[in-house]
Amino acid sequence: MVIVFFGTPEFAVPSLRALIASRHSVAGVVTQPDRPRGRGQRVSDPPVKQAALEHGIPVLQPDRLRDPSFMSAISGWAPDLGVVAAYGKLLPEDLLQLPTHGMINVHASLLPKYRGAAPVHRAVIAGESETGVTIMRMVKALDAGGMFAKVTRSIGPDETSADVERDLAALGATLLMDVVEAIASGSAHEEPQDDAQSNYAARITREDGLIDWQLPASAVHNRVRGLYPWPHAFTYLDGARLIVLKSRVEAAATTGPPGTIVQVSPEGIDVATGQGGRLRLLEIQPEGRRAMAVRDFIAGHPLAAGSRLATQ
C-alpha cells in the first residue's frame, strides 16, 4: 500500500521507521511546523521530520490542514492508507476520507480510557497500574473510532511518563504493522468503543505542575513522575520556584501542616502531605539552577525542619 504518515514527536518515530522498513511505501510525511524547542528555545526540526529526511521522504508542514495547496499535495500522493501517531492537530473530515482505506491512529492508551492529547501523562498522574497502545480508526469525534488491536504495559510505582512513553512507542510500532498487514490483506476487524467508559486526557500545561501538599503523598508522587520530563511538578521555597524531579513515598506517618519540611538529610527532604503522609524529595532543580540531588542542594543551602513549601 501507499501510506501517508502524520506525526511529530519522538513517540511517533518508531512507527514511521517500521513503515519505512516494511513492504509498503511511505509516499510522504506530514508534521508540525518547526518551532523553538529545549532549554535554549532554538528552532529545530520535529523528530519525525528528521527521520523522514534521513530516508529522503517528502515532508509537508502545513500551518492549516484545510489549505488547498496542502490538500492538493496529499491527493497527489494517492494514498491507500493514512497513519497518525501523535501528530498534534485534529484532522478535518475531508482529509480523513482521502485515503482509500481511511486513516488509523497509534494512540497511547487502552481506549476508551484516556482519549485526548496527554494519555500517558494523565494515566501516570492518576496512579494507573496499567496502560497500553490502541490502534484505532480515525473518525471525526476525538479518539472515538473502532479499535483494531491493543497491547498492554504495566506501570511501575516509580516509573515516569518518559519511561512509559518510550516503551509504548516501540510496542505501538510493532502493533501498527500487524494492523497494516491485516488491512492490506482485507482481514482487519474493528471493535466499537464503549463511549460510556471514556474519559478525557486533557493537554498538559505548566500550571498542572503546581503541587498541592494537601493531597496524599501517593498523589503528589504520581504528579511528580507523571509530569516528567515536562513540564515538571513544582512548589515554592522562600518565594522561589523549586522543581521536583524525583520523589518517593515514605512509609513513616507524620504530623504537622501539609507542605511542612519534617526532616532534612543527604538522602532527601521529607515533606508532610495530606492524610498524615510523607513524601521524600530526592532530586530537585532550584529556580535558575541545574538539576541536582538533594545532598548537593543542602550542601550550599542550609534547610531546617519546620520550613514550609508553598503554592506561591
Describe the structure.
The protein is built from 8 helices and 18 strands. The strands form 4 sheets. It has a 7-stranded mixed beta sheet with strand order 5-2-1-6-7-9-10, sandwiched between helices. It starts with a strand and ends with a strand. The model has no long low-confidence stretch (mean pLDDT about 95). The protein has helices spanning about 15-20, 45-55, 70-75, 95, 120-125, 160-185, 215-225, 295-300; strands at about 1-5, 25-30, 35, 40-45, 60, 80-85, 105, 115, 130-135, 145-155, 200, 235, 240-250, 260-265, 270, 280-285, 290-295, 310. The protein is an alpha/beta fold and about 300 residues long. The longest helix is centred in the middle third of the chain and has 25 residues, at about 160-185. It has 2 domains: about 1-200, Formyl transferase, N-terminal domain (Rossmann fold); about 205-310, Formyl transferase, C-terminal domain (Methionyl-tRNA Fmet Formyltransferase, Chain A, domain 2, Roll), CATH 3.10.25. About 40% of the residues are buried.
